Amino acid sequence: MATPTPQPQQPNQPPNQPPQPVPAGVHQGAAANGHAYAAPPNAAPGANGQPGGAPQWQPNGQAPHGAGAVPAQGLYQQAPTGSLHFTRMLQSEWTKIRTVRSTMWSLLVMVVLIVGLAALLGATVSDNDGSGNPDPSVSLALIGVMIAQIAAATLGVLTISAEYTTGMIRSTLTAYPRRITVLAAKSVVFGTLMFVVGLVACYLAYLVCDAVVASDVAGSSSGKEVVKGVVGSATYLALIGLFALGVGTMLRHSAGAITTVLGIMLVPSIFGGFIPGKFGDWVVDYSPMMLLIKMIAPADDADLGGGLGPWPGMILMACYAAAALVGAATLIKSRDV
Amino acid sequence: MIEAQGLTKRYGNKLAVDQLSFQVRPGTVTGFLGPNGAGKSTTMRMILGLDSPTAGNVLVNGRPYEYLSAPLREVGALLDAKAMHGGRSAYNHLLCLAQSNGIPRRRVDDVLNMVGITAVAKKRTKGFSLGMGQRLGIASALLGDPGILMFDEPVNGLDPEGILWIRNLMKALAAEGRTVFVSSHLMSEMEVTADHLIVIGQGRLIADTSMRDFIERNSQAYTVVRSPQADQLTKLVTAKGGTVTPEGDSGALRVTGPEPAAIGDMAAEHGIRLHELSPRFASLEEVYMRLTQGAVEYRAGLPGGPGAPGAPQGWGQPQPGWGQPQGAPGWGQQQPQGWAPPPGPGGQPFPPQAPPAPAQQAPTHGSEA
To answer: Where is composition skewed (Pro residues) in this entry (chain A) (predicted)?
Structure first.
C-alpha cells in the first residue's frame, strides 16, 4: 500500500483531547457532527438490560463514521504522529509487563541470582589466585550476572513472543496499528526496566559481597571499579535483553527464540576456543559473554588480553542489540499477524 | 463506514480474497456470510490492518486503518476470543489496551459491567470459559465506544443465553447509529440479526443486498401436497404450468407454481382427494448453500452438488424460478438476477430496517452446514 508522506496534524483533530463521556442513551454531539442517526427501532435491550444503554461516547468530539462525514476518496486527514502517542504506548507496555506474573518471576529470579551468588561467593570462596594481589570485591560480586543474563534474555524474548503465542499481538496491533512504534515502546520500557533492576541488583550484590568477603580473597574496590562493574553489568543486561527482544520478534516462537539467543550468548565463548587460529580468538573476543566478562573482570586481568576494552565492548553490544531490533522492525512491519 | 475496493489476498497460489468490493454502512447490522474458508476472517483482518492486501484497499472512515490515531475509538473488533495473554487479568488486559488509545481507566470498569464480567475482572483470563472470553473480547471492542464494530463469528461457542445477548447487543449498537459488521457461516444466525447481507464464497462477492430483498427474492413459495391420486394430480398441475417433484420419500409432492388455493380448487373440480396441502417456503439456509456451493464449484471444480454428502434432502432438485442452476459459471461475476449491484461510493446510508421476519424453514431443510 502506498504510504503518503506524513503531514502535520490537522487542526480539527486534537489527538490528545480527553474523551467526553456522555450519559447513557443521550445522543449528544450527534447533530453537531452531522450524524444521520436514525430513530432507534424496537431493538430490544440486552438480556441483562445493559448493552442497550451503551453510553454514546463521542471521542475527540468528532468521529467521522456518520454518513455526513465521509471524507473524499484518498484524503487521509491524519498522518501518523507517533511522538504524540508514544507516552500512551509506554504506559500500555508498562502495564503489560507488570501485570504478567511470569515476567515478574523472571525479574525476581534475575535479582536473586545476582545478589544470592554474590553473597554465596563472598562467604565461601577462600582461595585467591596466589598472586598476592587480590581482585577487587566488585569483580567477585558480579560473577552472578553471567548466569543472570539468561533470565534477562528469556524475559526479553517472552516480552514479545508471548504476545504472538497467545494471540495478544492481534489485540495490540488492532489497538495500535503502527507496529514500529509498538516495538519501540516495548524496547524502551523493557530496556529501562532491565537497566534499573540490573543497577539495583548489581549494586546490592556488590554491597553484600563486599561486606562478607574475606580480605585475602578480594580487596576493596575503588569507586571507579564499582561504577564500571555495576553500571556496565546493568547496561549489558539491558542490551542482551533488547537483543533477545529483537530475536523474539523475528522468530515469534518462545522456545525457538530463547534457544537461539542462549546459543548466541554461550556457544561462541565456549567453543570459540576450539577454532584454531585468529578466527577462534576473534569469535571469543567479540562474543557477548566476553564483552560482559570485560565489564566484570579487574581492569588488569592478564587473561583477557585481546579484543575491545570494556566500554567499547558495550558499544559493540549495543550494535548487536540494534541489529536485532532493526531486523525485528523490518519483519514486524512487513509480516501479516 | 467501511469501504473495500478490489480487495485481494493471495496466500501462495491460493486466492483467499478475490477482488472484493463492498461498503458497510452505519445504522444497520451488516451480515458477512460465507462458508468456512470463504475469506471472511481474512477480509476482517485486512480491514484492521493485521494482514496487508495483495491488491486493492480498504478504508475505515475514509482512511486506511493504520492512519487512525486512536483506532479503538473508531473501530472495535472481536476477531477471536483468545486474542489475549492468559496470564493477565481481564481488567489489566483491557487497561493496557485502553492506555494505548488514551482511554480513561474508568471506561474499563464501564465495559466490564456492560458485558457482565465484573465479578471475574481480577481473574487471569487463562481460566475463562469460551463464553467469558467472548464477553471479554466484546468488552475490548466496546472499550473506545467506537462508531464501527466488527465481530467475527461472535456466537461460536456461546450458550443460548449468550447468543441472545449478543444478537440484541448488535441490534442495539446499530440502532444507535453505529456500523455493525458481523460475520457468520450460518444463514440462520444472519436471518435473525442482520439488516443487510454481504455473501462471499471462495473469496468472491456473491451477493450484496438488504436482508429484506434477499428474503423477498429467495423465499420462493411452494406447496407440499399429499394425495392418494398423486399421478392424476401431477398431470393436472403440470398441464396448468406448474412443476411437480417428489418431496422426500414419503410420497408427497412438491408443487411449484400454482398457489395452494388454486391447487385445492383444481383437485376439488376433478374429484381428487387431498390428504395434505401445506404452503412452504424455501429455507434461506438452502438458498445460501446453493449460492456458495455454486461459487465453490465454479472456483475449485470440486465434485459435489446434487447428492453431496451432508446436503439437505431435496437440495439438488431443479427449482424453477430460482435463478441459474447451481454450478453454472459466473455466480460471482454476473449479477444474479435482481440483486442490487454493490453500491457505489457516496451512497446514502440505508435507513434502519425492520428486523426481518423469521423465515419459515421447510422441515426437510433443517440441517446446517
So the answer is: 1-22
A80 to B51: CB separation less than 8 angstroms, yes or no: no
Complex ipTM more than 0.90, yes or no: no
**A window 18-37, beta carbon within 8 A of B:** 18-19, 21, 27, 30, 35-37
Domain boundary assignment for chain A: 86-334
CATH number 3.90.1300.10 given to B2-216: no
Q: Which chain A residue shows the shortest CA-CA distance from B179? A: A65
C-alpha cell at A189: 520500557
Cell numbers linked to B355: 428486523
Assigned CATH class of B221-281 = alpha beta
**Amino acid letter, residue A27:** H
Q: Give strand pairing partners of B78.
A: B151
Q: What is the pLDDT along chain A (337 residues), one digit of tens a residue?
A: 444 444 444 444 444 444 444 333 333 333 333 333 333 333 333 333 333 333 343 444 333 333 333 333 332 333 344 445 899 999 999 999 999 988 888 899 999 999 999 999 988 887 655 555 677 889 999 999 999 999 999 999 999 999 999 999 999 999 999 999 999 999 999 999 999 999 999 999 999 998 988 877 777 888 889 999 999 999 999 999 999 999 999 999 999 999 999 999 989 888 887 888 888 888 888 999 999 999 998 877 656 667 788 999 999 999 999 999 999 999 999 999 8
Show the cell assigned to A210.
563486599
Give the 3-state secondary structure percentages of chain A, helix then strand then coil, rounded to 5.
65, 0, 35
Of B57, B97, B179, the CB nearest to A171: B97
- The SS3 assignment for A263 reads helix
A14 inside 8 A of chain B by CB: no
All CATH 3.40.50.300 domain ranges of chain B, comma separated, are 2-216
Domain with CATH 3.30.70 in chain B: 221-281
In whole angstroms, give the CA distance from residue A237 to residue A264: 15
Inspect the interface and report whether the beta carbons of A174 and B77 lie closer than 8 Å. Answer: yes
Identify the residue whose cell numbers are 546493568: A234
Q: Report whether B51 contacts B45 (CB < 8 A).
A: yes
Tell me the C-alpha distance between A262 and A260, whole Å: 6
